[in-house]
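My hope is that you will study the record closing this message with an eye to the fold:
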Amino acid sequence: MTQTHPALILPEKGSPLTLTTRPTPTPDPNEVLIEIKALALNPIDLYQRDFGLPPIPSCPAVLGSDVTGYLRAIGPNTPPSSLPPIGSRVIALASSYYQNGSPDHGAFQKYALAQYEAVIPLPDDLSFEQGAVFPLGIMTALTGWTTMDIPLNTRFTPEDKQGVLIWGAASSVGSFAVQTAKIMGFRVYATASEKHHEYIKSLGAEKAFDYKDQDVVRKIIVAVKEDGVKLYNAHAVVDGALQPVLDVLKQTKGEYHAKVVNSPALKDGHPTLEDTTIRFNYPSLEKEERDKHIKGIFHGFVAENLKEGKLVPSPNLQIEEGGLEEGVNAGLDKLSDGVSGKKIVVPI
């Protein structure tokens, strides 16, 4: 095991990411050490690099969360039955966000720590690059269901005619929301740019609608009523989605109490609808409850459905070469310019 490793750090808020060398950490109880082979970029990485938001407790910081690589060490007292053998290929959420900003846990480096609850085997039929798209996107999508008080073991039948509206389905979170909704037995009504419609249908959407269409709300309502579907749950994945989502639910929820999970942070004075609960998509702030939730997501739903081939990498990959320094910075700049229906992945 190396004593030091290359890492891309944020020296101070708002400064460029800089390549340096950090001591390679030893995992504490309930942690593992991963040699990273690929990482994926998320909008939160860009916001933290450029604006320091969400807040970074201290600098220098290591950003990032989505990784794949080799399991190299397991901390003491970590449940051995919960992890594959050392040397195995794994998928992990290696984020400092829930670790008080600890730079040993960020993804933008060659070796990183991760809590064991968020580490699962990478299936043999997936590359490191394919596996890296999963962690934060799938966790956010699945947290959306539990935020709406929908258990992850929910399995509706076609006869139940349970529908769900996913607004922003071509994004990372949206595409996983479509996949997981399909697994849970929902009939999925999704919005995205027209060029992505066939793709999100291939992931499990029943019908797709162009969010740019000025008549999109009416078209969704008509489709739901023609299909005889009960639609009173919705995931507003992207900014600006809440009002049109509520406009649809007003006409489709009937006598049911509607529930909406909003993945962007809810702003003061946000739109509301009578007899409708609207919640920000976020796991528990209480560590023990959150760790249990994360373990249920990764060791339960994700591991099981990956093994059965019911989950696939989404959205489509956009590989950014150049390694830690050039690849990550270039990839974040491309995120800033705007990426549609793609997930940027950097091989390390």
